[in-house]
Backbone:
């Protein structure tokens, strides 16, 4: 079976002139179909950049990114949108402040010329546990958790098979974080989605992911199974200290 | 969790209600500032005067009466008569229509041009942005009145050309503003999300970026109305705008200037009208900024 997402030798340089830097250096990973793959690392290690490269929000990269066995740059735009979607970190920035939930959900349906807008939008809201009359609300009338649910509904409305999650819970309250994580995990089992999840919170990775990769300074250090968090079966020193630090932190709380 | 289908029309109605509430709240906030309320009153009076001009005029603004020239304000001629015996009050009222035409046409031309150039330059960036912004720089580097003078001199002096000339000189600040706003918005997550959901650049510009730029553009257009009125009057005064016998305020001052020392009313009333109207647009623009600009909330 081909991997849902397969990345080889992904390099990207960002910035101009003297401040130009290599942000990603030879990243390679495989996400099997239906799996949840985590990416961890400290701030600035390039986790989110990997997602932005896959989502084609950054274009200057070199290397290979294959989606379901096809090079991502060869997939027609409309088809790509229906395979890969993304949920952003900040639910306050990812919804247009002047668009109602209905507009946010109808827009992709209109651009992809799909029918039964009302029905599909209500179904998408029901899937993320929101009542249908939320369609007529504006983002400023929603809480952070509700906004993130709307953002997930919007990402799922085109029925993609791969969801890129860029720290989907880190901007949320701890109690709401658990709700959104459970929602994501339910949606994955129900729809057979593939997740590529970026997080700096190992508890989130432990809760959702089957395996995860540790990143530092734009390099992917190693790919570990979930169990590695509990029993610390890690070869790389940096990953060990990262996991150890996270465990110590949890204990301290 | 689903909602019965008859609850949805109710939700839609409540959405409309919030819109009306929002508009009402905005108007109340505008009126709660005395300066803005004053400005709004003057503009409303200006518009009403233009609509009901035929009813308000006591004389034909173009009718000459050579036996009744340069008369001081009286019960018969409220603001006096000019050097050809025309009633200054009636000419002033007739002038409101010209002023409103200039303001209306200029904003209809300027706001879309500024928005289109600014948002596309900001969104697409690269050489297109550079080219557009250098053109904008060229327009900005000349004082508005001088550039309008050059355009009118080239196109020929009349009111329509004056409007075109003023429009050509007042879009660059709006384009700059729209570009600056677009540069901030371009990196927002909701724009990335729209892009990722398959929206074309045009769709993103029209549906996501322009609505966010509109309030500041509206404020800027209102504020620049004051300059537009002054430039129009200036062109009229220099004989390059409205031509005699059109009762344009600037042109009225220009002819009245010759008799200014003995007949003060010829310059005073049109001058006061220009002052009042441009001041009002400034005050309303300031008020709008207080209400619409999210940074001031």
Residues:
């Amino acid at each position: 079976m081909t991997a849902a997402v397969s990345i080889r030798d992904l390099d990207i340089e960002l910035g101009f002139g003297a401040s130009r830097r290599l942000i990603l250096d030879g990243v390679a990973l495989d996400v099997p179909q239906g799996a949840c793959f985590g990416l961890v690392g400290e701030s600035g290690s390039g986790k989110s950049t990997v997602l932005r490269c896959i989502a084609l929000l950054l274009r200057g990269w070199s290397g290979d990114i294959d989606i379901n066995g096809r090079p991502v740059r060869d997939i027609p735009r409309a088809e790509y949108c229906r395979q890969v979607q993304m949920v952003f970190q900040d639910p306050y920035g990812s919804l247009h402040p002047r668009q109602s939930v209905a507009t946010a959900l109808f827009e992709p349906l209109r651009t992809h010329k799909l029918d039964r807008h009302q029905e599909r939008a209500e179904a998408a809201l029901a899937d993320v546990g929101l009542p249908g009359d939320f369609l007529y609300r504006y983002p400023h009338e929603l809480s952070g958790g509700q906004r993130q649910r709307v953002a997930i509904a919007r990402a799922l409305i085109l029925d993609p098979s791969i969801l890129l999650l860029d720290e989907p819970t880190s901007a949320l309250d701890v109690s709401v974080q658990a709700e959104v994580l459970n929602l994501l995990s339910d949606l994955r089992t129900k729809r057979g989605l593939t997740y590529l999840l970026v997080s700096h919170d190992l508890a989130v990775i432990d809760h959702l992911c089957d395996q995860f990769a540790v990143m530092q300074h734009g390099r992917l250090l190693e790919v570990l199974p979930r169990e590695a968090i509990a029993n610390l079966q890690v070869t790389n020193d940096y990953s060990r200290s990262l996991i150890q630090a996270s465990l110590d932190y949890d204990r301290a709380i | 969790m689903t909602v019965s289908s008859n609850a949805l029309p109710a939700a839609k109605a409540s959405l409309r209600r919030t819109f009306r509430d929002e508009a009402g709240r905005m108007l109340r906030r505008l009126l709660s500032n005395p300066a803005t309320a004053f400005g709004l009153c003057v503009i409303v009076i200006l518009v009403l005067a233009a609509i009901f001009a035929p009813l308000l005029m006591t004389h034909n603004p173009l009718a000459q009466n050579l036996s009744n020239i340069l008369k001081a304000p009286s019960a018969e001629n409220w603001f006096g008569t000019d050097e050809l015996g025309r009633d200054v009050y009636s000419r002033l009222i007739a002038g409101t229509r010209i002023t409103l035409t200039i303001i209306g046409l200029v904003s209809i031309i300027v706001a879309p041009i500024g928005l289109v150039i600014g948002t596309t330059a900001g969104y697409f960036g690269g050489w297109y942005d550079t080219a557009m912004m250098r053109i904008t720089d060229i327009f900005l580097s000349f004082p508005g009145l001088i550039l309008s003078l050059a355009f009118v001199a080239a196109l020929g002096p009349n009111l329509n050309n004056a409007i075109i000339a003023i429009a050509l000189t007042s879009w660059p600040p709006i384009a700059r503003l729209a570009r600056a706003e677009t540069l901030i918005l371009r990196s927002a997550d909701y724009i990335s999300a729209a892009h990722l959901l398959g929206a074309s650049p045009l769709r993103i510009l029209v549906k996501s970026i322009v609505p966010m730029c509109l309030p500041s553009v509206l404020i800027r257009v209102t504020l620049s109305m004051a300059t537009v009125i002054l430039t129009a009057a200036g062109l009229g005064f220099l004989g390059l705008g409205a031509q005699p016998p059109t009762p344009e305020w600037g042109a009225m001052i220009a002819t009245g200037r010759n008799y200014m020392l003995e007949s003060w009313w010829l310059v005073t009333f049109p001058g006061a009208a220009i002052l009042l109207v441009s001041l009002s647009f400034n005050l309303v623009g300031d008020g709008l900024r207080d209400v619409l600009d999210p940074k001031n909330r």
Residues 128 and 149 of chain A are 6 Å apart (CA to CA). Chain A has a mean pLDDT of 88.
